Amino acid sequence: MSWIDIGHIDxxxxxxARLVKTHIGCIAVFRTAEAEVFAATNSCPHKGGPLSExxxxxxxxxxxxxxxxxxxxxxxxxxxxxxxxxxxxxRLEEDRILLDDSAVTRRSAA
Amino acid sequence: xxxxxxxxxxxxxxxxVLEHLTxxxxxxxxxxxxxxxxxxxxxxxxxxxxxxxxxxxxEIVTHDDAWYAARGIACRFGEKVEKIDREMKVVEGANGHIxxxxxxxxxxxxxFMIPLPGHNLDGVIAYRDLEDTQQMMGMGPNNKVVVIxxxxxxxxxxxxxxxxxxDVTVVHIMGHLMERxxxxxxxxxxxxxxxxxxxxxxLQANSKEILGEDGKVRALLLDDGTELPCDLLVMxxxxxxxxxxxxxxxxxxxxxxxxxxxxxxxxxxxxxxGECVEHDGEVFGLVAPLYDQAKVAAQALLxxxxxxxxxxxxxxxxxxxxxxxxxxxxAEGPGREDIVFRDPSRGVYKRLVIEEDRLVGAVMxxxxxxxxxxxxxxxxxxxxxxxxxxxxxxxxxxxGDTADPLSAVAxxxxxxxxxxxxxxxxxxxxxxxxxxxxxLDAVRAGTKASASCGTCTGLVEQVLQVTLGDDFQMPTAxxxxxxxxxxxxxxxxxxxxxxxxxxxxxxxxxGWTTPNGCxxxxxxxxxxxxTDWPLEYQDDPQSRFVNERxxxxxxxxxxxxxxxxMWGGITTPDELRAIANxxxxxxxxxxxxxxxxxxxxLGVKGEDLPAIWSDLNKAGLVSGHAYSKGLRTVKTCVGTDxxxxxxxxxxxxxxxxxxxxxxxxxxxxxxxxxxxxxRNCAEATCKDIGVVxxxxxxxxxxxxxxxxxxxxxxxxxxxxxxxxxxxIVMAVTQAYREGGKYLDRLYKWLGKVxxxxxxxxVVEDLENRAALVARFExxxxxxxxxxxxxxxxxxxxxxxxxxxxxxxxxx
Lengths: 110, 811
Ligand SMILES: Cc1cc2nc3c(=O)[nH]c(=O)nc-3n(C[C@H](O)[C@H](O)[C@H](O)COP(=O)(O)OP(=O)(O)OC[C@H]3O[C@@H](n4cnc5c(N)ncnc54)[C@H](O)[C@@H]3O)c2cc1C
Ligand code: SF4
Ligand code: FES
What we know:
The structure holds 2 protein chains of 2 kinds.
Chain A: E1 3-8, E2 16-22, E3 25-33, E4 36-41, E5 55-57, E6 60-62, E7 69-71, E8 87-88, E9 90-93, E10 96-100
Antiparallel strand pairs in A: 1-10, 2-3, 3-4, 4-8, 5-6, 6-7, 9-10
Chain B: E1 3-8, H1 12-24, E2 29-35, H2 47-52, H3 57-60, H4 65-70, E3 73-77, E4 81-85, E5 90-93, E6 96-99, E7 102-105, E8 109-111, E9 124-125, H5 130-137, E10 144-148, H6 152-162, E11 167-171, H7 184-196, E12 200-202, E13 207-213, E14 216-222, E15 227-229, E16 232-235, E17 239-241, H8 244-248, E18 257-259, E19 270-272, E20 277-279, H9 287-301, E21 314-316, E22 324-328, E23 336-343, E24 348-355, E25 358-365, H10 371-380, H11 407-410, E26 417-419, E27 424-425, H12 426-434, H13 440-447, H14 457-468, H15 488-497, H16 503-509, H17 521-532, H18 546-550, E28 553-554, E29 560-562, H19 573-585, E30 590-593, E31 599-604, H20 609-618, E32 631-636, H21 650-661, E33 670-675, E34 689-694, E35 697-702, E36 705-706, E37 710-711, E38 714-719, H22 722-739, H23 746-753, H24 755-764, H25 766-783, H26 787-794, E39 803-804, H27 805-810
Parallel strand pairs in B: 1-2, 1-7, 2-3, 7-19, 9-16, 10-11, 10-16, 11-12, 18-20, 32-33, 33-34
Antiparallel strand pairs in B: 4-5, 5-6, 8-17, 13-14, 14-15, 21-22, 22-25, 23-24, 24-25, 26-27, 28-29, 29-31, 30-31, 34-35, 35-38, 36-37
Helix pairs in contact in B: 1-9, 12-13, 12-14, 15-17, 20-26, 21-22, 22-24, 22-25, 24-25
């Protein structure tokens, strides 16, 4: 696994998110606590709502369009809704956010 | 040989005497019980729930045939006692004599009938027994009933009949309802609740004559000439102790039958209990003291030591939806101080009267949960010096570090009275629970708590909950969301009461079950904090829905719509050119004129927002807050400037209002309009706040809506000057901001607090109006500004991706 530095943790607001643009779509990087980040696809499996615009609470995010709630550990939709978002490995090193490069590089269609 | 005991009257007092007596000494007496009513003891105070249909008569019978049989009591029901011969020690019933060794008189009282002309007509009744109740139950939606008397009984009668759809009018001689138990403010709230139930209420109304036709009541005539037609007239104006029998027998009587502390009359073999007695100059009209008397009388009959003592009383009203409590003395006076708490959104009023660091009176309306605690402080004369500041918030705030609503009950000492009717204290209930009573019915059976009027049911449930913990399932009010058990109202109250000034404080001190809330509670809490503490609390964008965080409306494809403000719907060629240029430059696919008189640019990409705002800002355009739970637009017509009908400068006023109100946050969106004359081209009467100009001034009406619900506004007031109109609009907005539940439109808030309350706060009480305006201004000193300019300056970066790998790859 190789990690790519995408920025300083303070560039993501606490209980907020920022976008990472890639060739395979947008990834949302969430900051759930002072030093806790998650990364997931930005697009809601329901109707494509932009998850980075949702309200972040606990280790979950609520989609701004129709309020589906996703657990950022597993990507599973909570409650009665069925659906899943892709979660990407991400970690913090000395306040820098490092994203697994498999998330951002074009994958072969193999 | 067994002594012979005769009891006259099978009412609430004598029922208790018999219970205590036969429990303590089952074989001491041969008992005969007379009752003029053709039935035995029943819970008279529950006639009101029978009337309203919430209970049946069978459910309120306290002692049935089997009970009398088991205790060996000879019942002579439906038989009136006509005479007492004290010399011979004989009681004369309608069907024959019976000798006694001891006699108990418990004849209760008679309803007082005002001797108006016509009071003997058919269909003029009192409210005392089952027969009266049944007559009222015979009324339906096609009937009209007039109730004379706005006290406890009259109102219960009125509400009971109104529950069956009867057209009921209450005629009351005083300036407010229940004047002996309530002060004006609480009386006012009560009136409003009753009016909401469809009951008409005439205050300061003097009855002159009861009009009849063929011997039957037809109408009540007031002395101002008003005629109130009715099929039934209920008089509930007071009671007189029923002393006739005793008086004839030569017993000492005054207002009631004189008794000493042992309930013995002037004849040592004759006892008296209940509403028929006079003790130490007082007569009685509520069951709590009668139950005490009954206990004492039973003990005295068994020659045990006991003495009756008068206590402070509290009152409640058994009308569903009218939650009131009053205790002690609440008249104003020198050396007395008031603490008042009002929560208009919940229709709550509480007033405490303090004299020399002691609580002497309490009146509450809408939320009476702490009633018994206050009542305890009054009865015990506890010094409240230490807790004066927070006293009004009740026991939950006294020293405890938790805001659990149950802690109020947990904090009560064992001797605190829970059930006023039956004088049951917390300790007895806890004892019963510990002995195995694990639900309400079991506690009722074991202690009688909540078994009479039932208003303490909630408290008893809370004692169960506190004592049993999770083993008891409480029926609960709707909490905000899964993060808490508290309701919006609770949280608003606690934020103010406990001075919680940050979200963290709310989560911590109010025991949130999640680390930092969820998408439901966070926006609400953020709103409550910023309205209550405008200077101390800083708005949290992360607790806002995306539209309010990004100051634009998200569309279904993830793009945004941008709406610049057009003050009062007025624009200029320069502004229009700037809008057109922006539309070109940012490839805006749709340009639309909105219903709020401005222009919407739809389909702007999120990343472009700061740039388009910056361009618009340069032309002097600012955010139109088209996305906010806050002031949206002030729609206007052209008024005197151009229209031949215009009476005032409606456009000018609209612009002024918008410049004052813009940027303010409210529980839900807030739309205004100003029309220049009653032709109402600006459609002001379906806005949250609408102003219609007339020759003589400005008509301000509120509570309109044109969304999923369509509602016409209701008139708040008319004022002569523009300045006053502006002031009223500001004050009403602030009252809504402070009281409204998050996501309640203004009309919903209005529905809860009532127009009368708003008028009192905003129109009539000038001092309060000024205070509201000042608080609004204070808040606006922070929020009256353009968020677009601010974001362009400070946050533009956050609108772009934190990293963009598509660019890298393209290079
Ligand atoms: C509709 C209603 C609602 C009420 N609500 C409340 C409340 O919420 N809280 C509260 O504390 N109080 C309430 N009260 C008042 C309460 O009911 C009375 O205080 C209580 O019933 C008085 O008890 P008592 O035993 O003295 O008289 P009663 O209960 O009136 O009993 C007296 C009995 O004596 C009988 N009697 C009279 N004369 C004779 C005679 N010569 N021979 C034989 N029998 C005779 C009568 O028929 C009657 O049945 C209410 C009263 C009414 C009518
Ligand atoms: S509301 Fe009256 S003043 Fe305004 S445009 Fe219409 S007619 Fe003219
Ligand atoms: S698009 Fe996310 S909940 Fe509908």
